[in-house]
Design brief:
By secondary structure, the chain is of the alpha/beta class. It contains eight helices and seven strands. A seven-stranded parallel sheet has the order 3-2-1-4-5-6-7, sandwiched between helices. α1 packs across α8 and α6 crosses α7. It is globular and about 55 Å long. The structure holds nicotinamide-adenine-dinucleotide. The site of nicotinamide-adenine-dinucleotide (NAD) has 28 residues, from α1, β2, α4 and α6.
């Protein structure tokens, strides 16, 4: 397989790491991006099983001036950029819209929306230089409709689905496909922290809260992060060649109950 690089944001998180492991197995070189130094450790661990090179880059991607380490890592690898995986995201503090702290609103919008625009602006030029490629955003089933107590998160993810379509329309002529994966619940620390918070609010145990939520899912369980990574790998590769502007629901059927 010819040398090619993918940039993955949120790579130290549950989904991001699974995507890194999957892409490494598929022969990609990788720039792994996250806010904390731990991303270097993740890069070293993924590198152990990779055919290509894996380099970590520490960056808070909500500010344009923070993106230089990512570009430097890309240059260090020195292969054509063919994929941008926009996985980083944050959940909001759960609460009613009537008392929603606007700093919290801004924090969620900055990571879940603004940062993805900045990443597209900075890294579409190298994608074009390499003759095109693919971008995948990670939205959510909470972006498919609004849910009480999650106004900022739902609006940010609905916005991300729309952003994905706009980018797809604009970049098709450059041979860049842009799609989204909308997970349901995924067995990562984000999901388990949300379950714990809800259990505490309701005064019930974590296990009973988990059962309540998972029983709403036709497949009766959260996704493994690798199952989200599989959908992203599909969209990145030749089997996804006729998809652009699409959002694939990988949610165990939860939208249809
Ligand atoms: N876990 C779920 O149940 C679930 C469900 C639907 C959608 N999602 C989405 O999947 C994506 C991955 O979630 P996850 O479960 O792996 O969560 P996670 O919290 O394990 O990982 C998210 C990662 O994003 C990183 N990040 C946050 N802000 C950043 C910033 N400003 N710059 C760079 N990195 C930043 C975090 O440090 C973290 O490592 C998110 O976009 C999330 O909204 C998750």
């Amino acid at each position: 397989m010819s040398a090619r690089v993918a940039i993955l944001t949120g790579a130290a998180g549950g989904v991001g790491r699974a995507v890194a492991e999957r892409f490494a197995r598929d022969g990609w070189s990788l720039v792994l991006v996250d806010t904390a130094d731990v991303v270097h450790q993740v890069a070293a661990e993924v590198d152990a099983s990779a055919e290509g090179r894996v380099v970590g880059a520490v960056a808070d991607i909500t500010k344009a001036e923070n993106l230089d380490p990512i570009e430097n890592a890309l240059r260090e690898i020195g292969q054509p950029l063919k994929f941008l995986g926009l996985i980083a995201g944050v959940l909001q503090e759960v609460g009613p819209i009537t008392t929603l702290d606007m700093n919290e609103w801004d924090r969620v919008m900055n990571v879940n929306l603004r940062a993805n625009v900045l990443m597209i602006q900075r890294f579409v030029p190298p994608l074009k230089e390499s003759g095109g490629g693919a971008i995948v955003t990670v939205s959510s089933w909470f972006g498919r409709s609004g849910h009480g107590l999650f106004a900022a998160y739902c609006a940010s993810k609905a916005g991300l689905i729309s952003l994905t379509q706009s980018a797809a329309a604009e970049l098709a002529d450059d041979n860049i496909r842009v799609n989204s994966v909308a997970p349901g619940n995924v067995a990562t620390r984000m999901h388990f922290a949300a379950l714990q918070e809800e259990a505490d609010n309701r005064g019930v145990s974590f296990e009973s809260m988990k059962k309540t939520e998972w029983d709403k899912i036709p497949l009766r369980r959260a996704a493994e992060p690798a199952e989200i990574a599989a959908a992203i790998a599909f969209l990145a590769g030749p089997d996804g060649a006729y998809l652009t502007g699409a959002t694939i629901d990988v949610n165990g059927g939860v939208l249809f109950t």
